[in-house]
Specification:
Blueprint (H helix, E strand, L loop, with lengths): L5 E4 L6 E2 L1 H16 L16 H7 L5 H12 L7 E2 L3 H10 L3 E5 L11 H4 L7 E3 L12 H10 L6 E5 L2 H10 L2 E5 L14 E2 L3 H8 L1
Parallel strand pairs: 1-4, 1-6, 4-5, 6-7, 7-8
Antiparallel strand pairs: 2-3
Helix pairs in contact: 1-3, 2-3
Keywords: Hydrolase
InterPro entries: HAD-like_hydrolase_sf (IPR050155), HAD-like_sf (IPR036412), HAD-SF_hydro_IA (IPR006439), HAD_2 (IPR041492), HAD_sf (IPR023214), PGP-like_dom2 (IPR023198)
GO molecular function, one term: phosphoglycolate phosphatase activity
Amino acid sequence: MAKYKHLVFDIDGTLVDNEHAVLLTWQETLEELLGKKYELEELGFVLGIPGVTSMERLGIGEPEKAFLHWGNLFVNHRDDIQLFDGIRELIVNLQQKGVQLGIVTSRLPTELDNDNALGEIISYFSTVICVTDAPRPKPNADPLLVYMQRENAQPSEVLYIGDSDYDRQCAANAGVDFIRALWGKISSDAGKTEKTVLTPADIIKLIEC
């Protein structure tokens, strides 16, 4: 078996395909709050960071209240979210190999129930670190440091798998190896020396080589 005892996953864009649903909800929310319809392409910056942080960056007053409104609208799109192809098989395979599975996400705890797709596999993960579980969110190291503290894990034993540069920076700041998942991406800003995988099945091949 590979050197990694812990495989830790981001959720959005890595385990579940929810990008379109998320961006549509942001479009609807901002049109209601600001009276302005943003193009979906303008809203890509919200992906991978806490929703309240996105509200703050947009200059919206009472960002916590505004994000609660976003959550109310998002319920209308939750059935559109699916696991990426091959994710269920990957998670089951890793558990059978004795790998400890974890999640580090920018979601709030209440957002873990935002979609039915995640609910299909979340029981396989022994530790879930949400944005409120760490002093500072990604790209800071804190979420992964909290995970390692809870699991009594060393950085060399952990591999973090995510789709965004926030994920990569979080791993680098925590001294943890990182693989970028490209299955949800049309294009990627991954560096040339960065390890990437095109399908979930590629993770098994990569960690065992």
